[in-house]
Design brief:
- With 390 residues, the protein is of the alpha/beta class.
- It is built from 16 helices and 13 strands.
- The protein has a 7-stranded parallel sheet.
- Helix 12 crosses helix 15.
- The protein is globular, with a radius of gyration of 21 Å.
- It starts with 10 loop residues before the first strand and ends with a helix.
Length: 390
C-alpha cells in the first residue's frame, strides 16, 4: 500500500481519461495540467487510445501512457470476455500505481471508476470528476462505486452539486465545486480567414453554437431558433461547430449527428446553417462570430461559454446549469429559457439589433472570465483539493 504523501513531497496524480479526442473535458484537463505546480504535483495521464489529446499532452511536456481498451458503454461489460479484458486493464493500472507510487487517481467516468477499484485497494485515493451523471444505469453504477471508493467528488458548478446531492445525498459532504478556468489570451485576429473558409462574407451576421453531437447539447433548439430568427433577419448565417467526437466507441453520437442533419434539411436550413467538424482554432472561429449561443438542455459547466466570453464575443445561454452561473443575465450575456427556441431567437435578435448592447456584454464577459475563470484559479483550487487528501 502507498504511504500518504507528506506536505513536502511531490504528490503523484494519475489521470485516467477514457477518450483521446479533444472535447470539453479533455480541454479542461489540458488547462489544469498547464497550470499545475509540478514542483508539488507529478501528473501522469493514462488513456484508452491514441489521439489528439496524446499529442497535446506531449507538446505540453506531460507524461502520457496509452493502455488500449474499449471505452464503450457499460452495457458491454455484461459480456464475460469484455469483463475479462477490462479486469486485466484494472490490474495493470494497479501495478502502475504501485510502481509509480501514485497517491491520487483522478477519474471522470463510471467505467474509469470500476477500472480503478484494484488501484484504490492498493492505497491510491480517488477523486471522481462528474462530467455528467447520465441516465439511470450510469448513475446507479457510479453511485454504488463512488460511495465506497471515492474520497472526493468534483463538481463544476453549484447546479451540478445540487444534482449530485439530490441523487446521492450520502456523497454531499465529499462533493466540492471547482469551476474550470482558462488562459484569457488576447482575442484572436483570425476571423477573416475563418469566414472565408466557411464562405460567409464579413458583413453577414454569424451566430454559432459549439458542441459535440449529444442529445443534451440542444442542437434542435438551435435549429428551430435559427428558422425563427430568419423570419425577421433573413441575412443571418449560422454555424454548428464541433463534431462527432468518439463516434467510433459511442454509437449514439452518430445517431444524434444524423438526426441533427435531417432536421436541418427538414427546416430548409442547409444553405444557412454551416455544420463543421472539430476545429483546432476554436478561439479564431469564436472571434469570427457576432453571437455565440449555448442551448444545452443539461450542462454541468459550459467551457465553451467561458471560451467565447474570453474571445470577446457576446453570449446567450440556457437559464439552467453551469452556463446560468457563468453568465450574469443582462450584465455579461443574456439568458433564455432552456429548451425554448422562441426565447433563444428573441435573445439573439436583441443582440444582433443592438451593437452597443452586444459590445457592452462582450466586454463585461471578457472581464468576468479574467476575474473568475482563469487557469491559475482552476489549478490552485485543484491543488488545494489534492493536498487535502494527502
Amino acid at each position: 500500500m502507498n504511504e500518504s504523501a507528506s506536505p513536502r513531497e511531490t504528490m503523484s496524480v494519475l489521470y485516467l481519461n477514457l477518450y483521446a479526442e479533444l472535447g470539453g473535458a479533455e480541454n479542461a484537463l489540458l488547462h489544469l495540467l498547464a497550470g499545475l505546480d509540478t514542483s508539488r504535483f507529478r501528473p501522469l495521464v493514462v488513456l484508452a487510445s491514441d489521439g489528439p489529446l496524446v499529442a497535446s499532452l506531449r507538446e505540453a511536456g506531460v507524461e502520457s501512457l496509452v493502455i488500449r481498451f474499449s471505452a464503450r458503454s457499460l452495457w458491454h461489460l455484461a459480456a464475460p470476455w469484455v469483463w475479462l479484458r477490462h479486469a486485466r486493464v484494472a490490474l495493470r493500472l494497479r501495478k502502475l500505481v504501485l510502481e509509480r507510487g501514485v497517491h491520487l487517481l483522478h477519474v471522470s467516468d463510471p467505467l474509469g471508476l470500476l477500472l480503478a477499484v484494484p488501484a484504490a485497494r492498493a492505497g491510491a485515493r480517488l477523486v471522481y470528476q462528474v462530467n455528467y451523471l447520465g441516465e439511470a444505469p450510469r448513475r446507479f453504477v457510479w453511485r454504488m462505486a463512488a460511495r465506497r471508493l471515492v474520497a472526493r467528488v468534483l463538481a463544476f458548478s453549484e447546479a451540478q452539486r445540487a444534482e449530485i446531492a439530490a441523487f446521492a445525498p450520502e456523497l454531499t459532504a465529499r462533493t466540492q465545486v471547482v469551476p474550470v478556468g482558462i488562459d484569457p489570451a488576447a482575442p484572436s485576429e483570425g476571423s477573416r480567414a475563418v469566414r472565408l473558409r466557411l464562405g460567409i462574407p464579413e458583413a453577414v451576421p454569424l451566430v454559432a453554437m459549439f458542441a459535440r453531437f449529444d442529445a443534451m447539447k440542444g442542437h434542435a433548439t438551435f435549429l428551430l431558433a435559427a428558422r425563427e430568427i430568419q423570419t425577421s433577419l433573413p441575412e443571418v448565417a449560422f454555424a454548428i461547430v464541433g463534431g462527432a467526437l468518439n463516434a467510433g466507441v459511442l454509437p449514439h453520437v452518430s445517431r444524434v449527428r444524423d438526426g441533427v442533419l435531417r432536421l436541418r434539411q427538414k427546416l430548409g436550413l442547409e444553405a444557412s446553417v454551416h455544420v463543421t467538424g472539430f476545429v483546432p482554432d476554436i478561439a479564431a472561429v469564436m472571434a469570427a462570430c457576432d453571437v455565440v449561443v449555448c442551448p444545452s438542455l443539461r450542462e454541468p459547466f459550459g467551457l465553451v461559454v467561458v471560451e467565447a466570453m474570453a474571445a470577446g464575443v457576446a453570449v446567450a445561454v440556457s437559464d439552467s446549469g453551469g452556463p446560468a452561473e457563468i453568465v450574469e443575465d443582462g450584465r455579461s450575456g443574456l439568458h433564455f429559457r432552456t429548451g425554448d427556441p422562441a426565447s433563444l431567437a428573441k435573445a439573439v435578435v436583441r443582440l444582433l439589433g443592438d451593437r452597443e448592447l452586444r459590445d457592452r456584454l462582450a466586454a463585461a464577459g471578457r472581464s468576468r472570465v479574467a476575474v473568475r475563470y482563469t487557469r491559475a484559479q482552476y489549478a490552485r483550487a485543484m491543488e488545494s483539493l489534492y493536498a487535502s487528501l494527502a
